[in-house]
């Protein structure tokens, strides 16, 4: 249950294979014209959890079956998008020995490589070829997508397509966090996947993006109280406990979690001007770079809402166990706290 070089190399090799297969020349021309492929999600954020592992890979697509795709029109055509995923699945099954499927509750192509799950997301490439040559295309796409939102937040609506198109920017934002914060993102995901979501239907799982946003928000809180990174396990334990407190708070009190993501994001004042998109939601964890998006809520209509009550209950239980352990009471190692402490030791040096 640890981040190992072997698993990291496995994912890196799989991503390189995806690049070769989806971007390489094929007889008769490519059915999917892919401009770039990026690692994102868990592996892209360097928060790989062995035995609970998945990785997100983004393929930016500019053409399909010889026709250039038009954004956003073509990308709102669900039948076309499903056909693109079927095509990607067929290409991968034809050219690799991987197990490839299209899950019902996720808009991705799922690939299994030696026990590791990769979610391949097809996303639009909105940056015109050659535009502002020399600038990071992830940054260019981010500004093209989010500029109108930041310029007129009162008129902005949540848009699942915009979130998908800008997924690489969120990964870039999270990669800039400290090693301690990265480690607690790993820890929170491991705690959730190893113990909390047992018995929870996949359609009700809390998303990894929401967990990451909670870690960022907890880190900001600790900074405001004078806590500083650089203390290794001590800071990571404090941060993880603060994440648990924040989970309880957002579920029981309805507090709004909103993080200042620096150059990639927005200030809270601007974010609150988008509140009509999520102010009536019970749990509010606002996307670090898109203030119209509540990561705590499923918006596609294809899944049930995440089980936040169950997560908050587990967080309160773990906080009680941590409190008892600090006073020398109870047997925390028989609980998820024991697993968490073990994982915390394994984080060191990642």
From TrEMBL:
Gene Ontology molecular function: 2'-5'-oligoadenylate synthetase activity; double-stranded RNA binding
Listed GO CC annotations: cytosol; membrane; nucleoplasm
Coiled-coil intervals: none
Gene3D superfamilies xref list: 2'-5'-oligoadenylate synthetase 1, domain 2
Protein name stated in the entry: Uncharacterized protein
Origin species: Gonium pectorale (Green alga)
Highest classification ranks of the organism: Eukaryota, Viridiplantae, Chlorophyta, core chlorophytes, Chlorophyceae
């Amino acid at each position: 249950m640890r981040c190992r070089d072997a698993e990291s190399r496995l994912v890196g090799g799989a991503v390189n294979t995806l690049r070769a297969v989806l971007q390489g020349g094929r007889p008769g021309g490519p059915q999917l014209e892919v401009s770039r492929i990026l690692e994102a999600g868990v592996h892209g954020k360097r928060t790989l959890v062995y035995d609970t592992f998945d990785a997100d890979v983004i393929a930016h697509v500019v053409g399909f079956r010889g026709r250039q795709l038009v954004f956003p029109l073509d990308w709102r055509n669900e039948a076309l998008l499903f056909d693109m995923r079927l095509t990607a699945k067929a290409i991968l099954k034809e050219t690799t020995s991987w197990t490839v499927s299209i899950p019902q509750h996720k808009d991705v192509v799922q690939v299994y490589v030696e026990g590791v799950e990769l979610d391949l997301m097809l996303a639009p490439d909105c940056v015109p070829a050659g535009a502002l040559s020399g600038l990071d295309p992830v940054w260019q796409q981010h500004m093209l997508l989010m500029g109108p939102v930041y310029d007129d937040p009162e008129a902005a609506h949540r848009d699942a397509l915009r979130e998908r198109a800008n997924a690489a920017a969120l990964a870039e934002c999270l990669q800039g966090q400290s090693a301690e914060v990265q480690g607690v993102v790993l820890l929170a995901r491991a705690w959730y996947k190893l113990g909390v979501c047992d018995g929870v239907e996949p359609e009700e799982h809390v998303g990894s993006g929401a967990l990451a946003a909670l870690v960022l928000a907890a880190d900001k809180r600790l900074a405001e109280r004078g806590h500083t990174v650089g203390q290794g396990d001590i800071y990571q334990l404090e941060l993880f406990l603060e994440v648990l407190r924040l989970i309880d708070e957002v579920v029981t009190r309805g507090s709004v979690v909103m993080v200042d993501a620096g150059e990639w994001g927005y200030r809270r004042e601007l974010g609150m001007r988008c509140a009509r998109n999520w102010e009536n939601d019970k749990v509010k964890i606002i996307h670090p770079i898109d203030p119209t998006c509540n990561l705590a809520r499923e918006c596609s209509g294809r899944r049930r809402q995440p089980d936040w009550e169950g997560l908050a209950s587990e967080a309160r239980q773990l906080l009680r166990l941590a409190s008892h352990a600090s006073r020398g009471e109870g047997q925390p190692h028989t609980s998820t706290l024991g697993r968490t402490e073990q994982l915390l030791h394994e984080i060191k040096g990642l």
